[in-house]
């Protein structure tokens, strides 16, 4: 239910007067609808989408999820969500980044660092469609919390949604690659170790 609500929130950010956004998302990023039989055009879903369209805060879904977890559970799993924009922007601004930078976020939480990276580099776009594809291709996120992984995916799409709209308007066949977001204990994730051993350029945040 939480993930369906997240998708309703995403749809609310891409919908237009012509459609509710589902058709655009199914073309551009169909992966989040795999095995999902929900009818987002139903009256109930439409009302939820309309309600969520009024929400303006960044990382609304992440904050909502974090508030459902008790302090004890947060301590047990070592959960700490960085929310201060000054902190993330300070760290990001120390890095040289572009659309071809391969980025590894080992404990993504709700994806705040990735969102700040996108905000920084999207200003320099020269070929919007190709730059969006490059960005999505070069992201590698990990978190031990499955829900956090899904929130990261939704948040990245929300952050990029206005640019996705432009790309889709220019090309109705525009399609993004699936984000590489995995749910594992980072210290024991063999695939990540292979990437490091192959000496791919990785930008690490903790």
Short description:
This protein is of the alpha/beta class. The chain has helices spanning 2-14, 22-28, 43-52, 60-66, 71-77, 85-93, 112-122, 128-137, 146-170, 190-197; strands at 103-105, 139-143, 180-183, 203-204. The model is unreliable at 199-206 (pLDDT under 50).
Give structural notes:
There is one protein chain. A four-stranded parallel beta sheet has the order 3-2-1-4. The chain has about 210 residues and is an alpha/beta fold. The longest helix has 25 residues, at about 145-170. β2, α9 (about 145-170) and β3 form a beta-alpha-beta unit. The protein is globular. About 50% of the residues lie in helices and about 5% in strands. It has helices spanning about 1-15, 20-30, 45-50, 60-65, 70-75, 85-95, 110-120, 130-135, 145-170, 190-195, and strands at about 105, 140-145, 180-185, 205. It has ten helices and four strands; from the N terminus they run ααααααβααβαβαβ. α7 (about 110-120) packs parallel to α9 (about 145-170).
Write the layout of secondary structure elements.
Elements: H1 2-14, H2 22-28, H3 43-52, H4 60-66, H5 71-77, H6 85-93, E1 103-105, H7 112-122, H8 128-137, E2 139-143, H9 146-170, E3 180-183, H10 190-197, E4 203-204
Parallel strand pairs: 1-2, 1-4, 2-3
Helix pairs in contact: 1-3, 1-9, 6-7, 7-9
Largest sheet: number of strands, sense, barrel closure? 4 strands, parallel
How are the strands of the biggest sheet laid out side by side? 3-2-1-4
Q: Could you say which structural class the secondary elements and strand pairing correspond to?
A: alpha/beta
Order of helices and strands: HHHHHHEHHEHEHE
Low-confidence stretches: 199-206
Helix amount: 40-55%
How far apart lie the N and C ends?
Answer: 29 Å
Total number of beta strands: 4
Share of β-strand residues: 5-15%
Tally of helical runs: 10
Mean pLDDT: 79
Shape, principal axes of CA atoms:
globular
Cα gyration radius (Å): 17 Å
């Amino acid at each position: 239910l939480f993930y369906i609500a997240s998708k309703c929130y995403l749809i609310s950010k891409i919908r237009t007067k012509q459609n509710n956004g589902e058709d655009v998302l199914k073309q551009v990023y169909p992966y989040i609808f795999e095995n999902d039989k929900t009818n987002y055009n139903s009256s109930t879903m439409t009302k939820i989408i309309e309600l969520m369209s009024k929400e303006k805060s960044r990382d609304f879904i992440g904050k909502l999820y974090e508030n459902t977890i008790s302090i004890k559970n947060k301590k047990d799993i070592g959960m700490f969500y960085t929310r201060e924009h000054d902190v993330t922007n300070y760290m990001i601004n120390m890095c040289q980044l572009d659309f071809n930078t391969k980025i590894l976020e080992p404990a993504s939480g709700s994806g705040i660092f990735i969102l700040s990276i996108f905000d920084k580099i999207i200003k320099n776009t020269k070929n919007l469609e190709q730059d969006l594809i490059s960005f999505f291709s070069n992201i590698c996120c990990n978190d031990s919390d499955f829900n956090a992984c899904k929130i990261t995916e939704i948040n990245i799409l929300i952050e990029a949604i206005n640019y996705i709209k432009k790309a889709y308007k220019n090309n109705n066949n525009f399609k993004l690659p699936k984000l590489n977001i995995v749910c594992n204990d980072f210290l024991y994730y063999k695939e990540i170790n292979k990437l490091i051993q192959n000496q791919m350029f990785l930008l690490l945040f903790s």
